[in-house]
Target: Anti-sigma regulatory factor (Ser/Thr protein kinase)
Amino acid sequence: MDMSEYGEAEGAQDWVIRLPGVPEQVQRARRLVTAALGRDHPLHDDGVLLTSELATNAVLHSQSGEGGAFTLTVTTMPDRVRIVVSDEGSATPPCACRPGLTDQGGRGLPLVDTLADRWGLSREDGANTVWFELALNLVGVAAVDAGARFTPLPR
Model:
């Protein structure tokens, strides 16, 4: 995955943290997104939710779990945010398969697929990297600036 187009984007800022692969660290991942975006940012809630899903997947479904670690990168740009979670690998690649109605899990990547404007995953030497982007709706940004509630346009 070539991240150079984002690192060079005007106004881009990267936040990177490597976290131990234990469930308690998912909260730290969410806090990094909050620190990078700010609570009032229109992409905050979706960014935190999807980060939580990907960080949880890294901890529960990869070698990044107990004794391992995962890396979170948040890149903020004037018109969007890109969030990347890299883990230490798994026997099988991540799947955006739709879970059954009674399944207890399996909703993380389908949720990313639904909410993100763009997303993808790659595997290198068994390690998984999942990324997503959320883009600002410029009409919504003007509404936030005017003090109104942010309402994204339908896709």
Q: What stands out?
A: The CA atoms of residues 22 and 66 lie 6 Å apart. The two ends are 26 Å apart (CA to CA).
